[in-house]
Amino acid sequence: MPFKPDQIIVHHDGVSREGPSFGIVDDFHESLGFPISSLGFCVGYHYWIERDGVIRQARAENELGAHTKGQNYTALGIGMAGCFDKEDPSPEQVAALGLLLSNLCSRHDIPAERIFPHRKYANKSCYGSRLSDHWAQDVLADFRKKDAAEAKEAATATFSVSAAPLPPGWLARVTVAFVTLCKAVLNSRG
Ligand SMILES: [Zn+2]
Hints:
It contains 5 helices and 5 strands, in the order βαβββαβααα. By secondary structure, the protein is of the alpha/beta class. The chain has a single domain, classed as Lysozyme-like. A 5-stranded mixed β-sheet has the order 3-2-4-1-5. Strand 2 and strand 3 form a beta hairpin. Helix 2 (91-108) packs across helix 3, helix 2 (91-108) packs across helix 4 (148-156) and helix 3 (135-146) packs across helix 4. The chain starts with 6 loop residues before the first strand and ends with a helix. The chain binds zinc ion. Residues 11, 118, 126 line the site of zinc ion. Zinc ion binds next to loops.
Protein backbone atom coordinates (compact mmCIF):
# COMPACT_ATOMS: atom_id res chain seq x y z
CA MET A 1 0.00 0.00 0.00
CA PRO A 2 1.54 3.32 -1.00
CA PHE A 3 2.23 5.74 1.82
CA LYS A 4 -0.02 8.80 1.52
CA PRO A 5 0.83 11.35 4.22
CA ASP A 6 -1.87 13.66 5.55
CA GLN A 7 0.04 15.27 8.41
CA ILE A 8 3.55 16.44 9.27
CA ILE A 9 5.07 15.73 12.67
CA VAL A 10 8.03 17.81 13.81
CA HIS A 11 10.63 16.59 16.31
CA HIS A 12 13.74 17.82 18.03
CA ASP A 13 16.79 15.68 18.68
CA GLY A 14 16.63 16.27 22.42
CA VAL A 15 20.41 16.54 22.46
CA SER A 16 22.62 19.64 22.08
CA ARG A 17 25.67 19.05 19.91
CA GLU A 18 28.28 20.99 18.03
CA GLY A 19 28.44 20.30 14.31
CA PRO A 20 26.33 18.07 12.09
CA SER A 21 24.15 15.44 13.79
CA PHE A 22 22.74 13.49 10.86
CA GLY A 23 25.36 10.74 10.97
CA ILE A 24 25.06 10.39 14.74
CA VAL A 25 21.29 10.07 14.52
CA ASP A 26 21.69 7.57 11.68
CA ASP A 27 23.94 5.38 13.85
CA PHE A 28 21.59 5.72 16.80
CA HIS A 29 18.49 4.79 14.81
CA GLU A 30 20.35 1.89 13.24
CA SER A 31 21.13 0.63 16.76
CA LEU A 32 17.39 0.84 17.53
CA GLY A 33 16.70 -1.41 14.54
CA PHE A 34 14.89 1.17 12.39
CA PRO A 35 14.56 -0.11 8.82
CA ILE A 36 17.01 1.19 6.26
CA SER A 37 15.40 3.52 3.71
CA SER A 38 15.63 3.35 -0.05
CA LEU A 39 18.07 6.25 0.28
CA GLY A 40 20.34 4.12 2.46
CA PHE A 41 19.70 5.67 5.88
CA CYS A 42 18.24 4.39 9.13
CA VAL A 43 17.23 7.87 10.33
CA GLY A 44 13.54 7.53 11.15
CA TYR A 45 12.52 11.00 9.98
CA HIS A 46 11.98 11.84 6.33
CA TYR A 47 14.00 15.04 6.72
CA TRP A 48 16.59 16.30 9.14
CA ILE A 49 17.50 19.95 9.72
CA GLU A 50 20.96 20.67 11.11
CA ARG A 51 21.72 23.64 13.36
CA ASP A 52 23.19 25.51 10.40
CA GLY A 53 19.99 25.08 8.40
CA VAL A 54 21.20 22.34 6.07
CA ILE A 55 18.38 19.95 5.24
CA ARG A 56 19.14 16.26 4.79
CA GLN A 57 16.67 13.77 3.37
CA ALA A 58 16.73 10.33 4.98
CA ARG A 59 13.61 8.71 3.55
CA ALA A 60 11.74 9.03 0.30
CA GLU A 61 8.43 10.81 0.69
CA ASN A 62 6.54 7.74 -0.48
CA GLU A 63 8.22 5.62 2.16
CA LEU A 64 7.12 4.94 5.73
CA GLY A 65 8.97 6.81 8.44
CA ALA A 66 9.84 5.57 11.92
CA HIS A 67 9.34 8.54 14.22
CA THR A 68 5.92 8.65 15.89
CA LYS A 69 4.32 5.55 17.34
CA GLY A 70 0.89 4.97 15.84
CA GLN A 71 1.20 7.75 13.23
CA ASN A 72 3.87 6.52 10.85
CA TYR A 73 1.32 5.34 8.29
CA THR A 74 0.01 8.88 7.79
CA ALA A 75 2.81 11.24 8.77
CA LEU A 76 5.88 12.78 7.22
CA GLY A 77 8.50 13.30 9.93
CA ILE A 78 10.93 16.19 10.28
CA GLY A 79 13.69 16.02 12.89
CA MET A 80 15.63 19.08 14.04
CA ALA A 81 19.07 19.07 15.64
CA GLY A 82 19.16 20.50 19.15
CA CYS A 83 17.33 20.29 22.46
CA PHE A 84 14.49 22.78 22.44
CA ASP A 85 13.74 22.18 26.10
CA LYS A 86 16.75 24.37 26.84
CA GLU A 87 17.78 26.15 23.64
CA ASP A 88 15.93 27.76 20.74
CA PRO A 89 16.15 26.57 17.16
CA SER A 90 18.73 28.63 15.24
CA PRO A 91 17.40 31.27 12.84
CA GLU A 92 18.81 29.15 10.00
CA GLN A 93 16.82 26.15 11.22
CA VAL A 94 13.64 28.17 11.47
CA ALA A 95 14.12 29.47 7.92
CA ALA A 96 14.85 25.98 6.60
CA LEU A 97 11.80 24.57 8.40
CA GLY A 98 9.57 27.24 6.87
CA LEU A 99 10.83 26.41 3.42
CA LEU A 100 10.54 22.67 3.91
CA LEU A 101 7.03 22.86 5.40
CA SER A 102 5.90 25.15 2.61
CA ASN A 103 7.20 22.74 0.03
CA LEU A 104 5.85 19.57 1.64
CA CYS A 105 2.42 21.03 2.45
CA SER A 106 1.99 22.24 -1.12
CA ARG A 107 3.11 19.08 -2.83
CA HIS A 108 1.20 16.71 -0.54
CA ASP A 109 -1.88 18.89 -0.05
CA ILE A 110 -1.41 18.98 3.69
CA PRO A 111 -3.11 21.93 5.45
CA ALA A 112 -1.07 23.95 7.96
CA GLU A 113 -3.43 22.79 10.71
CA ARG A 114 -2.07 19.28 10.17
CA ILE A 115 1.45 20.16 11.34
CA PHE A 116 2.03 18.91 14.87
CA PRO A 117 4.71 18.51 17.50
CA HIS A 118 5.54 14.90 18.39
CA ARG A 119 4.12 15.50 21.88
CA LYS A 120 0.59 15.59 20.48
CA TYR A 121 0.92 11.83 20.21
CA ALA A 122 3.40 10.95 22.94
CA ASN A 123 3.97 11.66 26.59
CA LYS A 124 7.16 13.64 26.00
CA SER A 125 8.13 17.26 25.38
CA CYS A 126 9.28 16.75 21.75
CA TYR A 127 9.77 19.23 19.82
CA GLY A 128 10.81 20.91 23.03
CA SER A 129 9.07 22.64 25.92
CA ARG A 130 10.34 26.09 24.86
CA LEU A 131 8.12 25.93 21.76
CA SER A 132 4.32 26.18 21.72
CA ASP A 133 2.09 23.54 20.17
CA HIS A 134 1.44 25.79 17.17
CA TRP A 135 5.05 26.96 16.79
CA ALA A 136 5.73 24.98 13.60
CA GLN A 137 2.43 26.14 12.09
CA ASP A 138 3.47 29.72 12.87
CA VAL A 139 6.86 29.16 11.23
CA LEU A 140 5.06 28.14 8.04
CA ALA A 141 2.66 31.09 8.26
CA ASP A 142 5.58 33.50 8.76
CA PHE A 143 7.45 32.00 5.83
CA ARG A 144 4.42 32.39 3.58
CA LYS A 145 3.70 35.89 4.80
CA LYS A 146 7.23 37.28 4.58
CA ASP A 147 7.55 36.83 0.91
CA ALA A 148 4.66 35.31 -0.93
CA ALA A 149 6.49 35.16 -4.26
CA GLU A 150 9.51 33.35 -2.85
CA ALA A 151 7.33 31.05 -0.80
CA LYS A 152 5.40 30.13 -3.91
CA GLU A 153 8.60 29.47 -5.82
CA ALA A 154 9.97 27.34 -3.00
CA ALA A 155 6.71 25.46 -2.72
CA THR A 156 6.71 24.44 -6.32
CA ALA A 157 10.42 23.63 -6.53
CA THR A 158 10.81 19.91 -6.97
CA PHE A 159 13.20 18.03 -4.80
CA SER A 160 10.98 15.02 -4.23
CA VAL A 161 12.30 11.57 -4.87
CA SER A 162 10.80 9.43 -7.55
CA ALA A 163 10.09 5.77 -6.92
CA ALA A 164 12.08 4.83 -10.00
CA PRO A 165 15.69 3.67 -9.68
CA LEU A 166 17.98 6.65 -9.48
CA PRO A 167 21.48 7.08 -10.85
CA PRO A 168 24.42 7.16 -8.42
CA GLY A 169 25.03 10.51 -6.85
CA TRP A 170 21.45 11.70 -7.23
CA LEU A 171 20.98 12.26 -3.49
CA ALA A 172 23.98 14.51 -3.25
CA ARG A 173 22.71 16.46 -6.23
CA VAL A 174 19.20 16.77 -4.80
CA THR A 175 20.59 17.83 -1.42
CA VAL A 176 22.93 20.36 -2.97
CA ALA A 177 20.15 21.71 -5.17
CA PHE A 178 17.85 22.05 -2.21
CA VAL A 179 20.44 23.64 0.03
CA THR A 180 21.25 26.06 -2.77
CA LEU A 181 17.58 26.89 -3.02
CA CYS A 182 17.41 27.47 0.75
CA LYS A 183 20.42 29.72 0.68
CA ALA A 184 19.05 31.67 -2.28
CA VAL A 185 15.80 32.25 -0.43
CA LEU A 186 17.56 33.16 2.81
CA ASN A 187 20.09 35.48 1.18
CA SER A 188 17.53 37.26 -0.88
CA ARG A 189 15.74 38.06 2.33
CA GLY A 190 18.75 39.46 4.08
ZN1 LIG B 1 10.04 13.29 18.69
